[in-house]
Design brief:
The chain is of the alpha+beta class. It has two domains: 7-139, 2,3-Dihydroxybiphenyl 1,2-Dioxygenase, domain 1 (Roll), CATH 3.10.180; 167-365, 2,3-Dihydroxybiphenyl 1,2-Dioxygenase, domain 1. 25% of the residues lie in helices and 34% in strands. It is built from nine helices and 16 strands. The protein has helices at residues 20-31, 71-80, 94-103, 182-193, 240-248, 263-272, 282-290, 300-306, 351-364, and strands spanning 7-16, 34-39, 48-55, 58-65, 83-91, 108-117, 120-129, 133-139, 167-176, 196-201, 212-219, 226-233, 252-260, 309-313, 316-322, 333-341. The strands form two sheets. Strands 2-3-4-1-5-8-7-6 form an eight-stranded mixed β-sheet. An eight-stranded mixed β-sheet has the order 10-11-12-9-13-16-15-14, sandwiched between helices. Strand 11 and strand 12 (226-233) form a beta hairpin. The longest helix is centred in the last third of the chain and has 14 residues, at 351-364. The structure holds fe (ii) ion. Fe (ii) ion binds next to strand 9 and strand 13. The site of fe (ii) ion (FE2) has 6 residues, from strand 9 and strand 13.
Length: 379
């Protein structure tokens, strides 16, 4: 049997959360997604509940434990809070991709298995990433129904009124790891999945006067998957990556960037749906207007009104904005991104403004100084 890593693109992301029903409502109401699949007691699964949501090519599953004995979910949420448990890539052949990865050192989580019903079958296998995260290989060529054969249609039609957000699909997924782990995980992707490192942000490239980080971006051979990996770097105060590692209790997924073709409309709709974003100071837009090299199709007044960031690249530009953490802990957040021309980057020119904004929120949470400020009330 041959092995090969033929990746077609991102497939789904699954979050483990405290209450799947309520989080699914948030994805529908705030992100403008549609609840199209369900798994739970009504489908014969007694210990957990999952909702499957879609918007164009964006596929998200949210899962919660119904009983503490469902420990893979309940234990994950107790330790990490709501977070991304696994992300999937669609491959030509699950068995072949799994053999490719595991024979090159990937840690096995689940061997290739088949989910079947009257509509056909879906194959999946998974390897480990970071502390408690998984990377799934999936193929659904022989299936033409909802998500996966263990899911069914929701039992009742749920009509949620919200503005159309125009989300298209996943652009990139970012991991946060501990000091000295970035090179280990970059090598893991490169050795076990045939990826290559194509961006290497060194000390001094990314940082404010208070905090800093290192970042490497690995990508699949045809660049359909791009995966930045961050680790904290020494600074005067606690970096956002250190805060994440402390609050998440380990390494994991920091953010997922979702593509849109019209970011001004997307951010306006998301704000109207109730989503919270990082603030960008007005001086940032004064700087944008003064840049003679910057030729963009969008009106800078519209970008300023929605606090959207802009970064020029050699043959194009990107527009992006980041949400505040979406859950209770200051861990996971979303990015929305519009690429124009041959944009391949991640907004390096925006890091300064972005990190200063994150540091303001970190300070409010009492997580910027290395020593906690003031007495924490007992709970
Ligand atoms: Fe990003």
């Amino acid at each position: 049997m041959s092995d090969s890593m033929d990746i077609r693109g991102y497939d789904y992301v699954e979050f483990y959360v405290g209450s799947a029903k309520m989080v699914a409502y948030w994805y529908a109401k705030a992100m403008g997604m549609e609840i199209t699949g369900y798994l739970g007691p009504e489908t014969g699964v007694r210990d957990r509940m999952s909702y499957y949501l879609t918007k164009n090519n964006l596929k998200i599953v949210v899962t919660s434990a119904l009983q503490p004995e469902c420990y893979d979910v309940a234990g994950f949420v107790a330790k990490h809070g709501d977070g991304a448990k696994r992300w999937a890539v669609e491959v030509d052949d699950v068995g072949s991709a799994f053999r490719y990865a595991t024979t090159r050192g990937a840690v096995m989580v689940s061997k290739p298995r088949r989910f079947e019903n009257d509509h056909g079958y879906v194959e999946e296998a998974a390897i480990r990433l970071y502390d408690d995260t998984e990377l799934v290989f999936i193929n659904r060529d022989h299936y033409d129904y909802i998500f996966r054969p263990d899911f069914c249609k929701p039992h009742q039609q749920i009509n949620i009124v919200c503005e159309d957000t125009g989300l298209i699909g996943i652009d990139h997924i970012v991991g946060n790891v501990r000091e000295n782990e970035m090179n280990v995980w970059a090598a893991y992707f490169n050795q076990t999945m045939g990826f290559e490192t194509f961006v290497d942000f060194k000390a001094g490239d990314i940082g404010t006067k208070y905090s800093a980080l290192l970042s490497k971006v690995v990508r699949s051979k045809d660049s359909v998957i791009r995966n930045p990996i961050n680790e904290p770097f020494e600074g005067l105060k606690k970096s956002q990556i250190e805060e994440y590692i402390e609050q998440y209790r380990g390494s994991g997924i920091q953010h997922i960037a979702i593509a849109t073709r019209d970011i001004v409309s997307t951010i306006r709709a998301l704000r109207n749906n109730g989503m919270e974003f990082l603030r960008v100071p007005d001086t940032y837009y004064d700087m944008l207007r003064s840049r003679k090299d910057l030729k963009i199709n969008e009106n800078i007044d519209d970008l300023q009104e929605q606090h959207i960031l802009c970064d020029k690249e050699s043959n194009g530009y990107l527009l992006q904005l980041f949400t505040k953490p979406i859950g209770d802990r200051p861990t996971f957040f979303f990015e929305f991104i519009q690429r124009t021309g041959d944009s391949q980057g991640f907004g390096k020119g925006n890091f300064q403004a972005l990190f200063e904004s994150i540091e303001l929120d970190q300070k409010l949470r009492g997580n910027l100084d290395r020593e906690p400020q003031g007495e924490m009330p007992a709970c």
